[in-house]
Amino acid sequence: MITRSLCKLCVVALSYCLASSMVLAETKIIGNITFTLAEGLDIERVADESLIQWPIAATYHETGDLLILECHWIRGIDKKKQLESKPHKIVRLSDTDGDRKYDKRTVIADGLGFPEGIMVLGNDLLVTSPPQILRLADKDNDGFFESREVWFDGATVTGCANDLHGPMMGPDGWIYWTKGAFAEQNHELLQREDKSDGEFAPSKAAHIYRRHPMGGPIERLMSGGMDNPSDLTFSPEGELFFCSTFLHNPGNGLRDGIAHSPRGGLFGKRHQVIDGLRSTGELLQPIANLGPAAPASVNYLVSNAIANTAWYPLAEGDAVGNIDTNRFLVSAQFNLQKVGLHRLIPIGSSFETETHDLVSADRIDFHPVDILEELDGNLLVFDTGGWYDLCCPSSGSEQFVARGGIYRLSRGNDKKGSKILNPGVVKHQDFEADEQKRSMWAIARNITAGDDSDEKAGTIISRLADPDPSIQQTAAHIVGLNRWGVARGDLERVLQSESSPAVRAAMESLGVVGNAESIVPILTALNRFPDDRFMMHSAIYALMEIGATNEVIRVAKETGHVHERYATLYALNQLGKLTDELLPLLVECLTSSNARLRELSLKCLTSRPQGLSMCVPFLKTAWENENANTLAAGSSILQLGIANESIRELVAEWIRLGPTLSLIRRDWLLDCIQDMGGVSIPNEWGKAIITWMNVAKEKESLVKLANAIKNAKFAEGDRETVAKAIRSRAEGLLDSPQVAIALLAACPAVSQPQTSGCATVIIEQLVAPDGINVAQAEVALSRSTITKESANQLLQSLAQIPPLQLQSAIDASLRCEDASIDLAMLEKLPNVPATKTLAVERLMASLGKRSDEHKNKWTLMLQMVMAPPDDIVQSLDAWLERLPKGDSVRGYQVFRSAKAACSSCHQVGYIGGRLGPELSRIGKTRTRRDLVEAIVFPSFRMSQGYYPVRIRTVDDAVFNGIFSKQTDSYVELLCGADKVCRIATEEIAEKSESKLSVMPTGLEQQMSLAEFADLIAFLESKK
Length: 1023
What we know:
Structural class: alpha+beta
Number of helices: 34
Helix content: 25-40%
Shape: globular
Radius of gyration: 31 Å
Number of strands: 39
Strand content: 15-25%
C-alpha cells in the first residue's frame, strides 16, 4: 500500500483500508494475547509483570540496561488527586545472565508526577513530568536519583497527557520535545545574531521545540493545529519526522499519522490556535495516514534487519539483499494494538510511504507506547497495558488484568545474540555514506558541548561541496542549526544541485543565516522545482526569516516568473509588508493562468479598501465573459466587498435579474450569497432577493434560492418583508412539501406567527417516517412563531419527534407564552423517552422570563427525568448482564434509523455525519463496555478532540457544541447534526469548556433492548 500525501481523500482512505486489511502470515500466543506477525518474524516476552507494570516510555542506559517510566495510575480514582500524589517511578531493568531477557528490577527514582518521557544526559536523567522537564541527579552515587531541578517549565497542564512529550537528544546534541493540547505557553525564543537576544512569543498551537542542554531560549521547528504530537525522530541526514493524533479532521479513514517536517512546517487540521502563525500556503500533509491509531512512538530504523520480511526479502547469496537502499520508520499504534513498518520513498524533496503491519494483537487492552531498536536490529516493544483512560477511553476496563510488558520482535531465524548493548555505540549494517554522516553529527555534538573551534566548523562547511548530495544535505542542516553565516556562499552553491532534498536543506539554512543577498539564489532554485510543495514552503519560509522586505518587494515587481512572484507576494503578506505600491501588480495577477497566484492576489486585494475598488473592473469582466473559473475567484470579492458601494450596487442589479440569468451566472450568484454566512446582507440585496422570490416560477430555482439565503443575515427592516414573500410562495406550494419546507427553512425569524397551513406542513415533515426533510423542518420550526392551535398540534406529536429535534419543538411551543401550553408540556415530557436526550441548561434558557415558581417546576421535572444512577459502574454492569447477543446486520439498520439517529452525527465508511468521532474502526479501539458507556452516559468520558464549548450570549442564550471555526467577527459551533451555530463576537458574554457532551443522553431509551444489542454488535464489528 502506498499512501501519497497529495492524493485525493478518497484514494488515501482506500489505501488506508487496504493496509489495515493486509493478511499477516503467522500467529503466536503469549499469555492471553494472540499476536499476528509478518512472515519471517517472531515475538517473545522479555520482561513480565513481576519486573514491570504499566510502562510508559523507556531509554537505554550506557550499560545496556533499560530505564523505564512506570505508571501507577489507578482508573476510576479522581484525576486531580492522582496528579497531585505523584505515585510514578523510574525502574532500571538488567539482564544479569546474558540470556537476553531481563531478570533484575531496581527502582532508581519515585515520587514523580505523570511521566511521559525520559533520556540520559551525561550522568543525569531528563524526565518529562508535565508541565516540566526535570533534571534528575544521583549526587551520592548510590544508584538512586534523589536530586531534582526544573530544566524546562511549560507552565500548563490540561490533564489529558498531551501537553508535553519527550525529551530526546537530537543528532546535533540539542534537546527536543513536543507541545500538544491547546493551552497557551509563552517562551523566550532563540533569535538570529543580528536580532534581539530573545523574543517572547505566546502560542496555543502544537509545536516541536529544541533547546541547548545548558538551557536558554528555545526554538520552534514545527507548528500545527493537531492535538497531540507524541514523538519525533531523525534520518541520518537530519530530516525530522514526527507522529501525532488529529493531523486531519476525522473522516474517510483519516485522522492520525506520521509527518516529515521541514523547518517551520505548519501541519494539522485547521484550528484557531494556528491563526497568526506564519503560513506558507496550504497546511502540510502527513506522509503516512494511520486512521484512529493514536501513534505513541515513531523511530527511524538504524538497521534494516527487521524489514527482512515477506515484503523485503534478502536476495539469494546477498547479506544485505534488495532492501539495502530502503529507509524505514516504525510506529507504535496505541489504539490499533499494532506496530507498523513504513518504508520511506523519496518524492521531490520529501517522501511518501509504503506501510505494512509488523505485528498486531487481538486484545483491545494491548497498547504499544514505545519502541527501542537493539544492536542486531530487533525491536523492543513496550506495552503499557489497560490503565490509560485520560480523555481517550480506549483502555477502559482491564487494568488489573492487562498490566503491560516488554516484548522482543525479531526475525524468526535470529533469536540468538550477545548481551544487550547500548545502540548508541553499536555498528549497524549501513552504507559508507551513513558512517560519514554519523561522524559529521558527532562533530556537531562536540560543538554543542562547547568545542566550537573554527577547524571543526570548517570540516562541516567543506562537506557542502561533497559530490554526494546526501552529505551536502547533512552539512546544510548542521550549518543552519549552528547559524554559520560564513557558509552563505557554500550554501548558495548547493542551491544549484540536482538533488531537491539538498536544495531544500540549503534554503532552510540560508533563511536562518539571514542575508538579503540570498533571496535571488533561493528563488532561482525554486523555479527548478515549482511543483514541490516542500520546496515552495522552504523558499517562502526562508524569505520570511531573512526579512529583507525591500529586496523582496523589488524582486516581486521585477520578476517574470510566476513561482517567484507567488513566493515573494505570499511572504510579504505574511510579514504584513504588502504595501499599496503592489496593488496594481496584484490586480494584474488576477488574470494569471496560475490558480494559486490568482487566489493569493484576491485575498490580498480584498483585505484592503483601495484594493476592493480596483477589483470592480475585474468582477464586471468576469460576469460579462461568463468564465466559470474567473467567476469562482470573484466570490471572495463579494464576501469581503460589501462595504464597497460600487460592488453592492453591481451585485444588487445582478440579483434582480435572477430568474433570467444563465445557469453559470445564477449558480455562481447563489453560491456567493450562500457563502456570505453571518455577514449582514445589504439592504439593496434584500430587496432584490424579494423580487427574485416573487417572480421565480421553477420549483428547482426556488429551492436553490431558498438554500442560498437560509443562513443569510438580513437587515432589520428587510426581515418581515422577506418572511412575507417566502410564506406567500410556501402557501401556494403546500402540495410539494419538499419545496415548501425548503422555503420555510429560509424564512428569517420574525414575530409574525406561521399560518396554520405552513405550521402543519412543518410538523408533518418533522415526524414523517422517512425523515427526508426532518433537518429542514427543524430549521423552519426553530425560526417560527406558532399559534396556540399549532402548538397543541405539536404537543400531540411530541412522542414521534426524533430526539435531535425535540429541543426545537419545545422552544417553538414555549414561544407561544401560553400557560396552558406550558402546563401540557410539563405533563407530557416525562412520558416522552427522548426527554432524556435534552440538554438541561439549554432547555432552562428557553424558559426566558417566566416566573421563578414556573422555572422551579421545570427544574424538578428535569431532575426526576435526568437523574443518573448513583453508581455508573454498577449501572454499566447491569446493562452488560442483561444485554443479549446482537446481530450486526440488523444493527446497521438501527445505526441508520431516525430512532437512534447515530448516522446523523457519526460516520462509518462513507456513510454518516461528522459531528462526532468516526466509527469505521471503533470495534478495534473500544470494548463492549466502552460502547455501552458512550451511548448511555456520553458525558462520563468524552473522546479527545470532541470536547464541547459552551457559549452564553448577552441576551442569555446558551449554545453547546464542538468548536468549528473562529474569525474576528464570529465563532462557529457544530451544535448538532447538520446544525451550525454562528455567534457574533460582540454577542458573546461568556465562553468556556462544557462538561456536557454534544451527544444526547437517553438514546438507548429510543430503542428496544434487542435493537440496542444489535447496534452494539454492529459497532463491535467495525474493525
